[in-house]
Specification:
This protein is of the alpha+beta class and 864 residues long. The chain has 32 helices and 16 strands. The chain folds into four domains: 378 residues, no CATH class; 117 residues, no CATH class; 111 residues; 136 residues, Immunoglobulin-like (Sandwich), CATH 2.60.40.
Amino acid sequence: MADISNIPTLIKLFIQDLFKTTKNQKEDFFISSCSILFTVTILIFVNLLIHIIFPDNSEAIRIEGEKVIATGFHYLIWPEPIENLRVYTSLILAPPLIICSIKIFTSKLFRKISIANYMYFFNLALCFSLLGTLFYFAFKIDGSNFIHQENNILLNQEIRIYFKIITSELRFIAALVIYPLITYFIINGIPKKYTKSVNIILYLFVGIILLSLFFLTIHNRDSYIGVSDHLHAVLYSISQVQQGKYLLVDFSNQYGLYPHFLYPIFKLINVNVTSFSLTMSALTTISYSLIFLSLRKIINNNLVTFLTFIAIIYFSFFGFFNGLLGNICQSCADVYYAYKPIRMIFPALILYSVFTYILNPKKTLYLLIIFISSLSILWNPDSGIICFLSFYIYILYEKLIGNNVRSFTKELFKHTFISLTILAFTFFLASILIYFQSNSFPDWSLFLQMPLLYGKFYFFSLPMPVFNAWNLIFLVYLYGIYVGFSFILSGKRDAIDKIAFFVAIFGLGISTYYFNRSHDLNLIQTLYPSFILLAIFLSKLLDKSNRANLFQIKNFSIVMMISFILVVSLFQTLRPNAIINTLSTRIPDIINNKLINQSISTGVAIVKFNSNPNDEVVILADNDAVIHFETKTSSPFSNPGYSLNATKDQWNKLLDSLADNKLHKVFISGDVYKTGNIPDSRRVDIMKIIDDHYYLDDWVSEWRMFKPIKYKPITKSIISTKVTYSVFCSNNSKNCNSNVKHFHRIDNFPINTKYIKIDLDLSEPITVQSLMLHVIIDSKYNGTMTTLPIDGLRNIGILDNKNKQLINTEQRSDNLNYIVNKKFSILIPENNYLEACPAFKIELAYNNNNKINVRVPCKEKEPK
């Protein structure tokens, strides 16, 4: 134990070390700070110049966009051409400005300047003051676009609310108390005799976090966390590809060819929404695992690796589940497969692969990374193009080291040729595979059609606030670029500096997802490269070669800042009760397949009843993706899905396809049939075509099935049917009720009432799978009863030919498998139907989903 009497001396020595510095350190900080400040100043000047000089043609873009985007979505057109020009000009100028600034401030002119101590500390104070000011503006001051509302939610305030909630919780106070101790272990390492035990605990915790992540993102058909449109946008193309459709041949997709990558997986398992979610959750877990392994490759300090990974997990994932976002809006919490894993799995793989290559360069790995990044473009072009360009730019950066202009030019052409050749080969290979499967070459003009359309007309865009957390993140990436170029110009040979440059370029590319739709939720999903950079900066300061300089005020302040961010993130993640409670309420429902969405249940039932697996049917519903997926049907049309028809061209194509359709049944949900969804004008267009070209053939609850007027079924039932109906237990006699009571229990079936018995006489024996009966009074639909397991609909009883046995049980299922020897009867509650002289439409599924449809005409009223 340290002698207490030595503590004042230790404090005195510590303070002396804080303000101790050398000429080289002062020069290095002068060059780095001036280079960053110079670059930022020039970028601000360029942005102001663009704002002043370039004309704003937003209104012209909006007018053009309204000609292309469907009317109901015009409010989502938010042109920001000047902002776009400023952002991408800044991204392009940042690297060359960093190089120029390093050249300027390392020139002989500035080397002659002797930096006095007071100038060094003034520069240090100025830099940290500017960071503090940016922090204040980013987390406390509202920006210009915060008045924009979407679903009555103020946008771009989530990070500020995050900050407010985090700093007002007791766990934040706990983090402040424990922070010095954890920082001590970060700096000095875990004592050797505890290292093994602590490492086991850390890895165990990482395993628990990854398992929690996996289980939080699985769901069944009706328990998806988030906006259902986000699920359907990803699921629709998978549902079509699984039924033999081909992207870029039969239809197009916004998010890339990922359904074809997943096709073999879903052919090996019993595919449904739950197994789909298991696959997506597994890919998300693999993505984060690859990020963790990437950190392990480059960071020697296990505690830094662990804390950085937890921070990444917290901001990009757990923040959506631990209740913080629930205080903003419940709908903001979203699994959002369109990003995790679709836009994340290949970037995580590229990070791991490139780190491996930088640490141990090999020609085969170089070629493999180019091939993987080419595949990533096919998987998802948004993230794939970033993966490809990031590695392409990094290799050019690497070729700068030790080469003159002539040598670099030669390497540039060589690397470009290899990259483009492998990219072309990858696309050629995809074309051949699709051709052999579909007998048609893919139309590659459709591949980027939707992303380019969204970008051209700024569809779903949001303006970027002047002050936001992005300002601080940009500085992290800018410093990463500085570290990389400083590495070249100083002639060092440090692989970590090269990795820092790659991560900075990669992170700026990943951030483009936020630039277009500048929503805070999009920003926090793209933060992970910045945390990797912070871990690199922290690790470099903790390296043994820098230990002598660690306690100097600049280095020590940086270590304390980064450590504070990591420790606070750790304490925010420590919410076992929230995670356990969430899992304990969700997992049993998923295992038991508890379904709560009656509209989807009804839609699945009516489609299953009127179609077979692999059939082509038209489903006009916002949840068409799930229903196609659950019924294993596909659409005959080339549209990307009903709820995804965002352009007038797509919408008109759907209407034309509906008008020309003569072969396929059309199923319409109650939302579309009754009131429509956004935009409501769609219902008018659809129903006009339905009225002119279709007739109503089936209905269950709010769902309707229409057939084209000239519809010719592919197969007809060869079984003839005679049907009559009569009163059963007409006098409600004691003996009759006793018989009914002794029938096998039947769900939702009254036993103290009169009944109607409908007798069916078939031309041959069959095995009944399911029955559905619609009541029609005065030519209007008046209710449905069925043996299918549909909540809210009454069950049907089935009597044997001796009227002795009621066939059907309390637990209804999709298949009765009841063998009928030509004659049997249906029993339904009378419910005063006979007073109204009803007609009954009976739909019977039998012998492997064959169908019998028969209409029982109105029977004359019974005499009183």
